[in-house]
Q: What sequence folds into this?
């Protein structure tokens, strides 16, 4: 895979036609991850961007266009290159506009990457009624837990995935257990 | 304009349209320091012709139809707290004050997450207070929140003091409702044929009222956290501290507050909480003479005559810097996050100073904005410049901007709004006033020097204050080929050029 890595800012630059699988495997060798787990089958980075395929890990890493820090694109004219900066207040978010397709041809994409987490854990929590889940949601989002995946399953269950430093994940898991107990939920832990 | 006034009074009633000189003068400029200097120099700003106060999106739509029909400029206005001249009515016309659109319409849970829907004219402080009363927070705390509106936040992609955890306003916004120049209302979830395949929020948020008027928005909110822990950490130098903050952010810890002060700012802050982290002896004695509220005596005027000399002295005496952090969550988790953050800091030779520096910051975090008018009245002038770049380029950008400014101003800086890939730098300039005309020129060349240095060093010229008129001439170089795209959107969405004309180089 042809790519350029800024290992200090953790930015990866590659062509949009790069296969997502290749990106992840190359990063994995460096103990890094893109943090993008598409919700449906998609082959290349460019396809994921232009179709805005949702990221199952978006709570921690953001959607694919959030992971995109800058890009180069062509549209019947000069090359458009957005600035390689974390955030700005210089008009609309042009990288999101360019990434949307809309007649633009992506030439190069720079993505934020992250260190591979030390630990991953997951949980399925079920309640007997909706009130249990509603009570849990308030406790959960106040707790400071930063899940990678957070998905409601119907009106009485949730799946939550956690990742990061081992001791943080363990503390988060312990908090999950406490909150599930407080709201009369049943927690099934997984990895 | 008489016909426009008549049409607006017919629509809104005479009580919601003002043409009196006092109101027109009040709406003539925002909080940009340069505007105040220009007024002191006798340069009167252009006044709007009238101010009107809609209460609903439908009224905004009808007002825009009137403005469009008569080809009259219209400036969307929140609370006037901008610092880039973004709401100055350069061509007169209508000031569309949205403050009567201040309702919180709904708080809801969607797919397990919480959201608020509110009108754009609500003041940040009121929005936060109302959310707090219902057990929630937006997590957005810009220092202007006492006098800025939600619409203003969205117009210039505002950032708050807890952005490391909650993000900037564009990270919080889920949907927007926008009224176009021709009066069409784009409701939540609806795109437009003129901007095909593009989400309206990506186009209108940050466009400073030049492409449309954002009238309502839905934003992510969070239940209030039970615990917050504050900490100060000192580092031997800026590089070590930057390395620590970078590692904390890249590890995904996301403390709610991350503020790293450069050596001079660290000295002033440590003087504030009465605990020296930055050299003793001469520096402490010197600093005892610099409480900002007393800047105005002869000592300070002399000091600011040669700001470069003073800064050279500071560099010789100390390179220590202060980092303020805060972690939030349940008591147990806030403690674990703090512990991990401090572990990383220690690896980079950070020294834990306990909670006192953090508490001092918390208790004074809105004070600095209110000290500025006093300094102007004592014939100093102050301004702030906020830029951003990647971690790899951060120190380069810091030195590149600081160096040319030090000739004419005392320059403090802090690094806040940290992200995994980079960080913003917030410079504060304090300069001695001479004559009003001289100060206007000095102000202009300070900004020129800073923006040129920023562009040359590859930083972005604004992280969260926006462009307005102040930075408009630099925007084409900032955006490169995207400027043409921006102008194309402007022509498509506002063919008669009525929306906030003269801003952002459009």
A:
């Amino acid at each position: 895979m042809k790519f350029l890595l800024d290992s200090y800012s953790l930015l990866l630059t590659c062509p949009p036609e790069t296969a997502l699988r290749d990106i992840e495997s190359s990063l994995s060798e460096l103990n890094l991850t893109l943090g993008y787990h598409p919700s449906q089958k998609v082959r290349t980075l460019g396809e994921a961007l232009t179709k805005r395929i949702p990221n199952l890990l978006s709570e921690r890493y953001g959607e694919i266009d959030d992971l995109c820090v800058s890009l180069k694109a062509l549209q019947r004219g000069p090359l458009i290159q957005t600035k390689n900066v974390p955030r700005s207040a210089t008009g609309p978010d042009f990288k999101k506009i360019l990434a949307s397709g809309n007649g633009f041809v992506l030439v190069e994409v720079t993505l934020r990457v992250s260190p591979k987490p030390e630990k991953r854990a997951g949980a399925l929590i079920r309640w007997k009624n909706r009130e249990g889940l509603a009570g849990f949601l308030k406790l959960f989002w106040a707790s400071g837990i930063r899940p990678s995946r957070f998905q409601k399953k119907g009106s009485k269950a949730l799946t939550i995935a956690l990742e990061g430093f081992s001791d943080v994940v363990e503390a988060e898991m312990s908090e999950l257990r406490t909150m599930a107990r407080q709201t009369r939920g049943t927690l099934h832990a997984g990895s | 304009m008489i016909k426009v006034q008549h049409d607006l009074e017919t629509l809104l009633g005479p009580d919601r349209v003002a043409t009196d000189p006092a109101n027109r003068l009040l709406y003539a400029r925002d909080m940009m320091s340069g505007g105040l200097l220009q007024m002191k120099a006798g340069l009167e700003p252009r006044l709007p012709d009238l101010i009107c106060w809609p209460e609903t999106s439908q009224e905004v739509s009808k007002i825009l139809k009137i403005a469009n029909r008569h080809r009259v400029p219209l400036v969307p206005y929140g609370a006037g707290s901008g610092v880039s001249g973004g709401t100055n009515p350069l061509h007169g016309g209508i000031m569309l004050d949205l403050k009567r659109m201040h309702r919180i319409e709904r708080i809801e849970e969607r797919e397990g997450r919480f959201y608020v829907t509110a009108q754009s004219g609500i003041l940040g402080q009121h929005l936060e207070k109302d959310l707090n009363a219902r057990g929630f927070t937006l997590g957005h705390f810009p220092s202007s929140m006492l006098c800025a509106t939600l619409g203003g936040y969205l117009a210039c992609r505002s950032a708050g003091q807890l952005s490391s955890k909650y993000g900037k306003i564009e990270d919080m916004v889920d949907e927007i409702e926008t009224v176009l120049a021709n009066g069409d209302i784009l409701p939540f979830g609806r795109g437009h044929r003129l901007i095909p395949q593009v989400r309206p929020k990506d186009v209108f948020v940050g466009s400073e009222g030049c492409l449309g008027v954002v009238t309502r928005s839905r934003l992510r909110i969070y239940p209030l956290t039970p615990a917050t822990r504050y900490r100060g950490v000192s580092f031997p130098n800026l590089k070590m501290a930057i390395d620590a903050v970078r590692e904390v952010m890249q590890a995904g810890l996301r403390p709610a507050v991350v503020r790293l002060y450069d050596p001079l700012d660290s000295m002033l802050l440590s003087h504030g909480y009465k605990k020296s982290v930055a050299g003793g002896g001469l520096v402490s004695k010197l600093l005892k003479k610099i409480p900002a509220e007393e800047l105005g005596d002869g000592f300070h005027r002399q000091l600011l005559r040669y700001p470069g000399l003073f800064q050279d002295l500071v560099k010789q005496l100390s390179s220590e810097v202060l980092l303020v952090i805060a972690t939030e969550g349940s008591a147990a988790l806030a403690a674990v996050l703090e512990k991990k953050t401090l572990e990383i800091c220690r690896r980079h030779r950070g020294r834990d100073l306990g909670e006192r520096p953090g508490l001092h910051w918390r208790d004074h975090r809105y004070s600095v904005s209110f000290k500025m008018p006093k300094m102007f009245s004592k014939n100093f002038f102050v301004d702030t410049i906020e830029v951003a770049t990647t971690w790899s380029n951060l120190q380069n950008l810091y030195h590149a901007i600081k160096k040319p400014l030090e000739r004419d101003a005392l320059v403090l800086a802090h690094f806040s709004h940290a992200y995994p890939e980079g960080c913003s730098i917030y410079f504060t300039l304090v300069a001695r006033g001479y004559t009003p005309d001289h100060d206007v020129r000095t102000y202009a060349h300070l900004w020129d020097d800073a923006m040129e240095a920023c562009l040359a060093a590859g930083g972005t010229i604004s992280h969260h204050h926006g462009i307005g008129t102040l930075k408009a001439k630099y925007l084409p170089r900032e955006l490169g080929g995207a400027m043409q795209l921006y102008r194309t959107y402007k022509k498509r969405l506002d063919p008669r050029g009525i929306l906030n004309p003269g801003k952002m180089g459009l």
About this structure: Residues 60 and 180 of chain A are 21 Å apart (CA to CA). Chain A touches chain B through 60 residues (CB under 8 Å). Residues 4-115 of chain A form a domain with the Uridine Diphospho-n-acetylenolpyruvylglucosamine Reductase; domain 3 fold (CATH 3.30.465.10).
